[in-house]
Design goal:
Blueprint (H helix, E strand, L loop, with lengths): L1 H23 L5 H14 L3 H4 L1 H21 L3 H45 L6 H25 L3 E6 L2 E7 H4 L9 H17 L3 E7 L6 H21 L7 E7 L10 H7 L1 E7 L3
Parallel strand pairs: 3-4
Antiparallel strand pairs: 1-2, 2-5, 3-5
């Protein structure tokens, strides 16, 4: 009987040690693995040279996700931070593509102007050379358009009954739980302001939205603070203050399921509603 009791104690001890070891080696969630891959891909591409600021933002975002996994494990906050890290790595790549395309187009323009000048000064140029330069210019413009299409994923535009709605991802605009605009957000909002001034408008409403995590009261306050931050920057960029107002919607109008990291990220957004002249 004593022998069996000792064997049982040994078995339970071994089982306990095995479970303890297993708990300490929880595998990272898929979202974190995707974030690591996305940053590694971006860091080995043109972004390292052409979009260092955006790449650094992606690196910091990944570090936050890694720290959350160390402290919290496979929890929703870790998945949310990982998803944001993926998006910021993609933004770094898109910005690098845009810059690369702009440089290529500028070089083509420069070469084309020089070629025309040489022709005007009496240098002969074959039809084949002109056709090659035309094709190169078209290729550069196509590359630039593709890069801009990637960046347009950050700011989506659609027509609704209430006007033109420009949607900016909250993960691009703000750090988690904060209402201070990130550097890349300032650049994007400046582009939006320029487009609005060029187009003209009757009035603008900036709406802040959050996901469903946290209390409704805190989400409403945070969404209003974020909307006001975007409004203030648009005013700074030349939008008349008497034609633009801010409102905090909180989590009341989700556009996606809050049960997934991607859905929560889509719900964290700022919408700029533009009422055009009739």
């Amino acid at each position: 009987m004593v022998f069996r009791s000792d064997r049982r104690i040994q078995f339970m001890s071994a089982l306990g040690a095995t479970l303890l070891f297993a708990c300490g080696t929880t595998p990272p969630p898929v979202e974190l693995l995707d974030a690591r891959k996305a940053y590694e891909k971006a860091s080995k591409g043109p972004a390292a040279q052409l979009a260092p600021a955006q790449l650094d933002t992606a690196k910091q975002s990944l570090a936050k996700a890694e720290a959350s996994f160390e402290d919290e494990g496979d929890e929703p906050i870790t998945k949310d931070l990982s998803y944001m890290a993926v998006r910021r790595a993609e933004i770094a790549e898109a910005e690098a593509g845009r810059e690369q395309a702009e440089r290529a187009r500028a070089k083509i323009d420069k070469d084309y102007r020089e070629t025309e000048l040489e022709a005007a000064e009496g240098h002969k140029q074959t039809k084949q050379q002109l056709e090659q330069e035309k094709k190169a210019r078209m290729a550069a413009e196509k590359q630039a358009a593709a890069a801009m299409a990637s960046l347009n994923e950050i700011a989506k535009v659609k027509e609704e009954s209430r006007g033109m709605v420009i949607t900016l991802s909250g993960s691009v605009l703000f750090a988690t739980g904060k209402s201070t605009l990130l550097p890349i957000a300032q650049d994007k909002i400046a582009e939006v302001a320029k487009a609005l001034k060029d187009q003209g408008f009757k009035s603008i409403l900036v709406e802040g939205h959050t996901d469903a995590q946290g209390s409704a009261d805190k989400n409403q306050v945070l969404s209003l603070q974020r909307a006001e931050a975007v409004r203030s920057y648009l005013v700074r960029e030349g939008i008349p203050s008497d034609k633009i107002r801010a409102d905090g919607i909180g989590s009341a109008r989700p556009v996606a399921d809050n049960s997934s990291a991607e859905g929560r990220a889509n719900n964290r957004r700022v919408e700029i509603v533009v009422e055009p002249f009739k």
